[in-house]
C-alpha cells in the first residue's frame, strides 16, 4: 500500500515506474498488492525512481500498519462500562 501511495503521490504510472526501476509492470503490481516480497536491491531501485528514500517508504509502511492495527483493536474492544 505504501509503495502504491508513493507512486500515486508522484503521479507516476505503474508502467513508468517499472521501466525506470527495471522491473516488469506485472511484478511491480504484485509487490504493490503484497503478493511478492521485495529484495533490498529492488526496493532501493524503486525508491530512486520515485525520488524518495528507503527510510521514508518504510516509515510510511510502519505508519500504515500501526493505523490498521489500532483500527482492528478498536473494532474488537468492548465499550467501557461508562459508555454502556
Write a short abstract of this structure.
The protein starts with a helix and ends in a 9-residue tail after the last helix. By secondary structure, it is an all-alpha fold. The protein has one domain: 434 Repressor (Amino-terminal Domain), CATH 1.10.260.
Please provide a written account of the structure:
The chain is mainly alpha-helical. The chain has one domain (2-78): lambda repressor-like DNA-binding domains (434 Repressor (Amino-terminal Domain), Orthogonal Bundle), CATH 1.10.260.40. The protein contains five helices and no strands. Helix 2 crosses helix 3. The mean pLDDT is 84. Pfam families: HTH_31. This is Helix-turn-helix transcriptional regulator. Residues 3-57 form the HTH cro/C1-type domain. Keywords: DNA-binding.
Radius of gyration: 17 Å
Please describe the biggest sheet, giving its number of strands, its sense, and whether it closes into a barrel. Answer: none
Number of strands: 0
Range of strand content: under 5%
Tell me, what's the shape? Answer: elongated
Provide the helix percentage: 55-70%
Number of helices: 5
Low-confidence stretches: none
Give the ordered list of helices and strands. Answer: HHHHH
CATH overall fold name: 434 Repressor (Amino-terminal Domain)
Supply the number of structural domains: 1
By CATH's scheme, which homologous superfamily applies? lambda repressor-like DNA-binding domains
Mean pLDDT level: 84
Secondary structure category: mainly alpha
Q: Measure the end-to-end span.
A: 36 Å
CATH C-level class is Mainly Alpha
The CATH architecture category equals Orthogonal Bundle
Oligomer: single chain
